[in-house]
Amino acid sequence: MIKKRILIIDDDFDICTVLSRFLNNKGYEADSAFTASGGLTKFRDGNYDLVITDYRLGEKSGKDVLVEIKKMKPETIVIVITGYSHIKTAVDVVKAGAYDYISKPLIPDEVLNLLSSAFASTAPPPAVVAEEPPVIKPGKLPVGQVIDNFLVGCSKVAQQLYSQVDMVAPTNYSVILYGETGTGKEVIAKRIHKSSTRANQPFVAIDCGALSKELAGSALFGHVKGAFTGALSDKEGHFEAANHGTIFLDEVANLSYETQAILLRVIQERKCKKVGGTKEIDLDVRVIVASNESLFDASRNGKFREDLYHRFNEFTLHIPPLRQRLEDIPLFAEYFLDKSNKELNKTIAGFDNEVMNIFLKYPWPGNLREMRNVVRRAVLLTKGDKVGISTLPHEIINPLDSINENADIVPEQDGTRSEFDLKDAASKAEYETIMKVLRDVKFNKSKAAKILKVDRKTLYNKIKTFEESNRAT
Hints:
By secondary structure, this protein is of the alpha/beta class. The chain has helices at residues 13-25, 36-45, 62-72, 87-95, 108-120, 156-168, 185-194, 216-221, 238-241, 257-269, 295-300, 306-312, 329-344, 353-361, 367-381, 394-397, 399-407, 422-440, 445-452, 456-472, and strands spanning 5-9, 29-33, 50-54, 77-82, 100-103, 146-147, 150-151, 175-178, 203-207, 222-223, 235-236, 246-250, 271-273, 280-282, 286-291, 315-318, 350-351, 386-387.
């Protein structure tokens, strides 16, 4: 059996000696160089399958070495050694084409596992091929790549999640997704659908929190003409629209108990009837549901049908909040920057270091949705080459101050207006109360609605009305 040849480039003599000796004992053929130029010369003259290079090499950086190696031999696997907490460095080298990175101090088992994974990878080198999008295969997640609007993160919790996604996707299991508001539950549901045998069939997403109790049955299962006042024609329901594909029910705990009972029968029988109709429609639909509260707890408290919970609970995925994915924050920031550049026809190159440090420290209660909006706003306001701190909202720069400062809003008096607009003041006070409660419950709209003693749809409408009125002024 031909041994895999590995080149180690590091200006630390001890690391080169110990690591090359260790790899030679494990069946590899390892060689070493102590400078970037020496390593590139050895690589040019030799025939190496994989290169392990330190990022800090004095004359050149590990990223420079990576770029040179990829120019000479694009298919070579390159792994970069970084400092323990150098998150942005790790992200940069992965984006530049490194297979992965490994942090100091080097742990032998981790090195071996990474080498095994790298050599087991069958991913082809980057090339212009047919227009069909690449497919993420189980266990071979291309970190940092965007496929079908799905960005693969580099953090350990993200990799664990994606691994589970790819395990369950080819099955027909029903899946429960748990995660805070804005963590990307619908994106994960779409990824499951795209990786399944139903990929070419419909994917239908419904926000159950926005469905009124009276019309939920019509929205989900359709209705016939004359079924109720205003039913002027037959209507196809979301389940029928998703037939042979996947239906995603977001915030499923908000469905009324009566609608849950109908939904249970539909899932059990794989048939549904339109509201007011008698004909049964055969269904072949995979169901994915999402919630930011425990359906198990809700079923025990009598707020969610226990039999329906068990129907859904064939597989469960927990989506981590952004604050637990620090390594992914620069990655997502760049992703949203690219999208915003295209949307606004701009060419912003990146973020100031100060901005990225703020991003890494901020808790992101609204998660990815909040980050997307912050970056879009910043790109719109940026006039130079990079996003600077002046383009960030106050609550991002000073998160602890924002609630207190926004609590007491006094209408401005500019000399042309001598009296208060009571309606406007009441509207602002109501909006600030809503936002304070949302922050307190980490933007869990179901909990916020209960605290404010309104239904979820009313909460949505109040926020939307205020934002539209604010834009108009």
